[in-house]
Design goal:
This protein is mainly beta and 160 residues long. Helix content is 14%, strand content 38%. A hairpin with a 2-residue loop joins strand 3 and strand 4.
Length: 160
């Protein structure tokens, strides 16, 4: 059985292979970034070969495959809150705050610290909101009152 003796952290895990890439995106005009989600899809082509059922010897037991993910130089937390995690086939989503997404470029590095796996797909969804100024209620009231006053003044002049 392949188990780690020490807790999972940068000091106890060696770095093996890594892959880096950059997501490019263009924020629409007049929109501000609210945040985003990076979704990574992993697979593993390693086949576990069971050993002797009586002794457990031989074969290839399950391998612990540990990874970390950097987003613009920051360790990203997996859904369980960890930054180092055993990778099983499937999708992993990372929530990104607006400060990480302001430039239109988002760099990602996935590093294998133990075992091997394949990164099949990476997608970045960026959420936006309108950055157009919304008038304050008092501004609308003042504008409405001014228009009503001008209307009244115009009516009085016509009556005179």
């Amino acid at each position: 059985m392949n188990q780690l003796e020490a807790p999972l952290n940068a000091d106890t895990l060696p770095e093996f292979d890594f892959v880096s890439w950059i997501h490019h995106y263009t924020p629409p005009a007049g929109m501000s970034v609210l945040g985003g989600t990076l979704t990574l899809s992993f697979s593993d082509d390693e086949q576990d070969v069971p050993g002797d059922p009586q002794t457990g010897e031989g074969g290839n037991p399950s391998t612990l495959e540990v990874a970390s993910v950097l987003g613009d130089g920051n360790l990203l937390a997996f859904d369980d809150g960890s930054v180092f995690r055993e990778i099983n086939p499937g999708q992993y989503a990372f929530q990104l705050d607006p400060g990480m997404l302001g430039s239109g470029l988002f760099g990602v590095t996935a590093t294998s610290h133990n075992g091997d796996f394949t990164l099949d797909q990476s997608s970045l969804a960026v959420d936006y909101t309108s950055s157009a100024a919304v008038p304050e209620p008092t501004t609308v009231l003042l504008l409405g009152g001014g228009l009503a006053g001008m209307s009244l003044a115009g009516r009085r002049q016509r009556e005179a």
